[in-house]
Backbone:
DNA sequence: GGAATCAGTGAACGTTGTTTACCCTGGCAA
DNA sequence: TTGCCAGGGTAAACAACGTTCACTGATTCC
């Protein structure tokens, strides 16, 4: 019988796609980036490897899709914590968001490596063609823009706040502006990127173990750096 | 005839080792980290793949050796530029060193990815056992300690300079202190790591293309951030 | 009911790292 | 000079990988 709804094929297909993705993410957290292979996924979902090509053009395409999903996951995690402190000052909210970013990274090191680590050759080349990934990355950035924009609206930085004049900023952020338009003030974008790179540097080095030669507990340093950075944002 | 010097075997062996390493690095810069494979190296040097096991225990061990070499290369590049400005103020010298770090990273993106990117599973596990890699990394750090120490000796930070009291610092940097001892003042170590993570964050994101969605030319931002960081070092 | 599309399989190709058994040559000692 | 033996190197093989191709069944559509 099998009730013939119009989108039965599509529904089955979508279910299989999520099943494949779930399996891939399971393998990713279990064995790291190298453990996610077409054949392992196929074994896991009970198919043969070539069958996966009905759903993804290649392994790289699959990984790219997963990375895009991960960016959405991370963005939601950051948005949730921002919403949970909706009544606080924008800058303290940014602090919460930064801590959440670090927490998420430490809890998902393999995923973090895929998203923010050294670019995987195939995935990067795909990413240059398709836009969903850069979109997801930009959306994560805009989550911060939103809150920083609030602060900016209340305290629009007296004088020369952002070290660079407006026309220079406009030229500097041409890639973003070209794709997403003037949704946020230039100084907000600039200050985010400056703060973002600091945050990224500390968290990435911690997750990747690049500070293990010097120290093990990074949290005190993170808190100091976060305070310093937030202080700078409030100038 | 072949003049039978005492260490002929060893000399031949050493030559082959460097030949293998050179080939690997050639493949690395040509095709990225994934292009460096045992069989490709073997083809390049005119041997079969199993023969390489006479020189390295595994591909991971070979890569580990190369990464260690790369750290030395980078350290020399930084030291050279430090020596070239030996007569200038320590803090301006640190600025030159930071710029050199960025230059080197941009000129050697594949090598940089291997050294500072997401950890390759096998290499990392090796690195935890053997120490030469962490040693090389620490030596690179100490290159900066040296110069920062000069500044510290001239201007020993009045008051509470480094946000954290000395005993806390001692506990924080226990891994470094345990291995390398009290060669440099604690505040110097702390300030270096804090500055290092900022520098790393910006350069890594640039090299890995993680800022491409927002901006293409990172240099202006780098200069601003560098100035900011150096200013903080001079507090 | 026939045709076309789709999901899935099996076999194959060319990679990869690694192990094993074997060979040969250079260096050393008797 | 002779014998030996360790070390360098090879060929074959194994298991795993991504990917392609030809093919089969089922499902959907007209």
Residues:
């Amino acid at each position: 019988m099998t009730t013939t709804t119009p989108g039965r094929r599509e529904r089955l297909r979508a279910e299989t796609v999520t099943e494949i993705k779930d399996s891939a993410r399971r393998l990713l957290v279990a064995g790291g980036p190298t453990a996610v292979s077409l054949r392992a996924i196929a074994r896991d979902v009970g198919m043969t490897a070539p069958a996966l090509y009905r759903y993804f053009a290649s392994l790289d395409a699959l990984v790219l899709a997963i990375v895009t999903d991960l960016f959405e996951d991370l963005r939601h995690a950051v948005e949730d914590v921002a919403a949970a402190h909706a009544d606080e000052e924008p800058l303290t909210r940014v602090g919460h968001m930064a801590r959440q970013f670090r927490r998420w990274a430490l809890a998902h090191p393999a995923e973090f490596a895929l998203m923010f680590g050294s670019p995987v050759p195939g995935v990067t080349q795909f990413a240059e063609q398709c836009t969903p990934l850069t979109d997801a990355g930009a959306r994560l950035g805009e989550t911060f823009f939103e809150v920083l924009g609030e602060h900016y609206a209340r305290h629009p930085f007296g004088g020369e706040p952002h070290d660079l004049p407006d026309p220079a900023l406009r030229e500097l952020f041409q890639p973003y502006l070209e794709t997403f338009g003037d949704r946020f003030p230039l100084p907000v974008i600039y200050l985010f990127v400056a703060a973002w790179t600091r945050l990224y540097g500390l968290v990435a080095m911690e997750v990747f173990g690049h500070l293990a030669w010097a120290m093990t507990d990074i949290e005190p340093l993170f808190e100091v750096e976060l305070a310093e950075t937030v202080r700078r944002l409030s100038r």
Notes: Residues 2, 4, 8-9, 37-40, 49-50, 53, 58-59 of chain B lie near DNA strand C (CB under 10 Å from a C1'). Chain B touches chain A through 52 residues (CB under 8 Å). The mean pLDDT of chain B is 90. Residues 1-56 of chain B form a domain with the Arc Repressor Mutant, subunit A fold (CATH 1.10.10).
